[in-house]
């Protein structure tokens, strides 16, 4: 009987790997689109999770920092086959884009990027994609005057005080403002929580999450070892991203461009290519890690940036009912979400706009690409390909 049980579990894991890999190969369009693909595959087609549990899981993952769509995928894997199922689901959904971006980074590694005129087009693609993200995020995350004011304060602070800890301080202040402004009127209604992890496992995962957030910077400063410093930077980026994958851009830019580990042109070219591949935007870390430390750096960066997502989803599932019914906590997160809009606008200006829009023809190409993306609803890979061709054509003008 035990043997049959083990065989059944293996079959479930293999099926989970197959389905999640197929989603990883075909899920274009960012986290909102990913959630739509997940709903179609996991809820409607396979009925691995019911509608109520799916909505509740999505609410939890949007409440937490980190890549929401990846956390939903991990959560569904956990519900299907335990913690191993969560790992398998994550590997399937993430590996295709990780391999593609690591391959692109290896192609560029050691090359003189200034000789590739088409890469300038990819930097213009980054302008278009982030502008589109800002418009949608501002509408959803800063709809009223109080949250608009928080976003404005975050924007000004991020532009005028540029340091490694600026974003962290902004997030902390925004959470305090959100707590004070919205503690009495944040919505608390919603479906009940889901429970697939014991509270003991939850405590261990949350303790590990916060411990690494404290210990890794200390180890990085004490040892000055390149790989520990890299893990620290990617882990903090993965732990402090609120509001969607695009917000990882300013955090990683602070960690790696400002410190000279990667130049702006290479950084933005990789971000542009990230829009062309399916799967989560957090796989941009695989590109940066590969540029800095080869394929080993790419693997390490991927693990480090997604580890907080794992620990948070496993750590909070048992306590979701209590968290979401606390209006004060929800108010703090409303403030944080407004602040990330300002942080992203600051990153949109520098380095994205200042390094990509250098002449009128650059702005013209950006306007064309924006129209194709927003009004014509073309796929992201089409926008990236068009941008690369446009960048190459501009070099002859």
Automatic annotation (TrEMBL):
Sorted UniProt keywords: Cell membrane, Membrane, Transmembrane, Transmembrane helix
The entry's localization annotation reads:
Cell membrane
Q: Which InterPro entries does this one have?
A: Chr_Tranpt_l_chain, Chromate_transpt
Name of the molecule in the record: Chromate transporter
Q: How does it sit in the membrane?
A: Multi-pass membrane protein
Transmembrane segments annotated in the record for this chain = 12-37, 83-106, 118-138, 150-181, 201-222, 234-252, 299-320, 332-352, 364-394
The UniProt similarity line reads: Belongs to the chromate ion transporter (CHR) (TC 2.A.51) family.
- The source's domain of life comes to Bacteria
């Amino acid at each position: 009987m035990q043997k049959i049980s083990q065989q059944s579990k293996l079959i479930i894991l293999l099926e989970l790997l197959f389905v999640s890999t197929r989603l990883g190969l075909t899920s274009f369009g960012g986290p909102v689109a990913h959630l739509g693909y997940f709903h179609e595959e996991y809820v409607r087609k396979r009925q691995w999770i019911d509608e109520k549990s799916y909505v509740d899981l999505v609410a939890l993952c949007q409440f937490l920092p980190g890549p929401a769509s990846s956390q939903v995928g991990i959560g569904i894997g956990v519900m299907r086959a335990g913690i191993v199922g969560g790992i398998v689901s994550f590997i399937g959904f993430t590996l295709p884009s990780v391999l593609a971006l690591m391959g692109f980074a290896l192609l560029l590694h050691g090359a003189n990027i200034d000789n590739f005129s088409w890469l300038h087009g990819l930097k213009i693609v980054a302008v278009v994609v982030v502008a589109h993200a800002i418009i949608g995020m501002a509408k959803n995350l800063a709809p009223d005057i109080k949250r608009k004011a928080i976003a404005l304060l975050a924007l000004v602070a991020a532009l005028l005080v540029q340091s490694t800890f600026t974003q962290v301080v902004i997030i902390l202040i925004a959470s305090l403002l959100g707590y004070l402004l919205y503690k009495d009127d944040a919505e608390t209604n919603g479906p009940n929580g889901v429970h697939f992890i014991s509270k003991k496992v939850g405590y261990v995962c949350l303790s590990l999450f916060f411990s690494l957030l404290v210990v890794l910077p200390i180890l990085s400063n004490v040892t000055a070892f390149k790989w520990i410093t890299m893990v620290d930077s990617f882990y903090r980026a993965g732990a402090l991203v609120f509001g969607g994958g695009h917000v990882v851009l300013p955090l990683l830019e602070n960690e790696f461009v400002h410190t000279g580990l990667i130049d702006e042109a290479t950084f933005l070219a990789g971000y542009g290519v990230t829009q062309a591949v399916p799967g989560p935007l957090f796989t941009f870390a695989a590109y940066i890690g590969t540029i800095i430390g080869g394929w080993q750096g790419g693997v390490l960066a991927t693990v480090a940036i997604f580890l907080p997502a794992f620990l948070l989803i496993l750590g909070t599932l048992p306590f979701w009912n209590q968290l979401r019914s606390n209006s004060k906590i929800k108010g703090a997160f409303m403030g944080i979400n407004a602040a990330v809009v300002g942080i992203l606008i600051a990153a949109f200006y520098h380095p994205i706009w200042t390094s990509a829009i250098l002449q009128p023809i650059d702005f013209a190409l950006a306007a064309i690409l924006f129209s194709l993306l927003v009004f014509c609803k073309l796929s992201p890979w089409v926008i990236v390909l068009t941008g690369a061709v446009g960048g190459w054509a501009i070099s002859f003008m």
